[in-house]
Design a protein that fits this description.
Blueprint: H1 11-20, E1 25-26, E2 35-38, E3 43-45, H2 46-66, H3 75-100, H4 122-140, H5 144-152, H6 155-169, E4 183-184, E5 194-195, H7 198-220, H8 229-245, H9 264-282
Parallel strand pairs: 1-4
Antiparallel strand pairs: 2-3, 4-5
Length: 300
């Protein structure tokens, strides 16, 4: 029996399985590495660069948004927002991952700080950013919900780069499939079978599509003058995107599909969908004359 053949598996079935995967994409053939720069004593990973790129490009875009009439904050506030958002992403994202996905990490609490080993939850990061915005708004007397509308328009950048980094890392791959674009990932847990490249599905839906939808409502409608509408659109758009993609993404191995038939990702997304619908449905009732904190004009 060859070393690559499972015990008791006929050679004919082994060869058949190998032939069945020959027409699919192989992740190894892409030559990707999780490490962007390796100096021996220091490694810079694409995952870290994804966070940096998402924050910096999001900050740049936020400055474009607040230059428009009726902005809820100034450049100074936007600069502070980067600091608050970064802390919210790191602290909220890591803690939520530990509590909801890997609670065994709590047995050795120091491991919570090992962010370079991966393990972040978007849902937790979103809550962390919400808290950061609230603190900033209270400190400077700003409208929390309107600030949140503007920040929500910038989040898809981070989602896009983050999902691309997941793909480069060869992690969070999808369920088994025979679609023509299926990919075989080298992770032993992937089983050497073709799978959905669900990281790319999420990058497209949560990054490109969600950004386009929010940009349309910001630049082409009066949504930014109805407090909560843009953040509601974001919550609904992200929630639906994540809920759908979870049908193609392999559930976390330590959790699987939960007893009520949904994955943890889908379960945590349901409050976002409901909250988004509420904020969109009630936004017109919060419409008021908007005096500019930044930008050029007041807006009736």
């Amino acid at each position: 029996m060859g070393s690559g053949q499972s015990r008791g598996t006929p050679l004919s079935l082994t060869l058949l399985a190998a032939a069945a995967t020959a027409d699919f994409f192989h992740y190894d053939a892409l030559g990707l590495s999780p490490v962007a720069l390796d100096l021996g004593f220091f490694q810079l990973r694409w995952y870290s660069l994804a966070y940096i790129a998402g924050i910096l490009i999001g900050w740049w875009y936020l400055l474009k948004l607040i230059a428009q009439p009726g902005a809820p904050m100034t450049r100074h506030h936007a600069d502070d927002m980067v600091f608050y958002a970064t802390l919210g992403i790191l602290i909220g994202g890591r803690l939520a991952y530990v509590f909801f996905y890997q609670p065994e990490i709590l047995r050795n609490p120091i491991d919570i700080l090992k962010l370079w080993q991966g393990g972040m939850s978007f849902h937790g990061g979103a809550i962390g950013v919400m808290i950061g915005i609230l603190l900033l708004a209270r400190k400077h007397g700003l409208n929390w919900l309107r600030v949140h509308d503007y920040v929500a328009c910038c989040v898809p950048f981070g989602l896009f780069f983050g999902r691309l980094a997941n793909f480069v890392n060869g992690e969070l791959w999808g369920r088994e499939t025979d679609v023509p674009w299926a990919m075989i990932f080298p992770d032993p847990n992937a089983g050497g079978v073709p799978r959905h490249p669900s990281q790319l599905y999420e990058a497209a839906l949560e990054g490109i599509v969600l950004f386009a939808v929010l940009a349309f409502f910001f630049w082409r409608t009066k949504a930014r003058y109805e407090p909560g509408k843009l953040v509601g659109i974001f919550l609904l758009g992200y929630g639906l995107s994540r809920f759908i993609v979870e049908f193609f993404r392999e559930p976390d191995v330590q959790l699987g599909t939960l007893s009520w038939g949904l994955t943890m990702g889908q379960t945590l997304t349901l409050p976002m969908i409901l909250g988004g619908l509420y904020l969109i449905g009630t936004a017109k009732g919060r419409r008021q004359r908007v005096e500019p904190i930044a930008g050029r004009d007041s807006v009736a």
